[in-house]
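Lecture 7, part 2: worked example. A protein chain together with S-adenosylmethionine.
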Amino acid sequence: MEYWNNRYLDNGKIWGTEPSKTALYALKLFKKYDIIKILIPGSGYGRHTKFFSKNEYEVTGIEISETAMNIAKGFDSDSKLILGSVLNMPFNDERYDAIFCHSFLHLLLRNERGLFIEKCYNQLREGGLAFFTVFSEQESSFGRGAKIEENTFESKLYRPTHYFTERDLLDHFKTFSVIETGIIEETESHGGLHTHRLRYIFLQK
Ligand SMILES: C[S@@+](CC[C@H](N)C(=O)[O-])C[C@H]1O[C@@H](n2cnc3c(N)ncnc32)[C@H](O)[C@@H]1O
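Predicted complex, written out as structure tokens:
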């Protein structure tokens, strides 16, 4: 939490105000289904809660960083925003039609990832959908920094990152039905222009 509070204090809206390319793709997929309520775990300062709200969904974001939450409250007045750890879900008895979770799961260690995925599963209605993006083993930072667990490195100090192969990602989501997986290149300009090779997985409960 301290790592993220400091990053948001230093850089504000780190990734800008526009949605990621993966969110645009998730929206295209979501539009094919009957979705009203979307949950966004690790919602940061609200660029994606705002994006899906603007696209007429009922959106709830959960975020652990108070600094990010304060920015989000001034930026996105349409979504419901909850301050807390997604590892403590549920915060209500809602069942969501879909989950959109961008660039968050890889920040958790093995046991936490299992717990988080189980909690996400429980937050979805039967037939509910989920779209996750994660760092892949094709990231340029793969293998950099101290090794913490299998394929998990402290590539930035105090921010261990798990790098997912496709097999590994599929193994994490065995309780779901997999609709689609792939890689999306996401170019960002904070701290110099760089491109992530993110894996995504689109699932159904
Ligand atoms: C890489 S950022 C992505 C933010 C957002 N998904 C986006 O794309 O703009 C990861 C976010 O997860 C949040 N986070 C980290 N651990 C969390 C936890 N246990 N519960 C809720 N949020 C968490 C961080 O504070 C940070 O805002």
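Residues 4, 15, 20, 42-44, 47-48, 62-65, 68, 85-87, 102-104, 107 surround S-adenosylmethionine (CB under 6 Å). The longest helix spans residues 110-123. Keep this in mind for problem set question 3.
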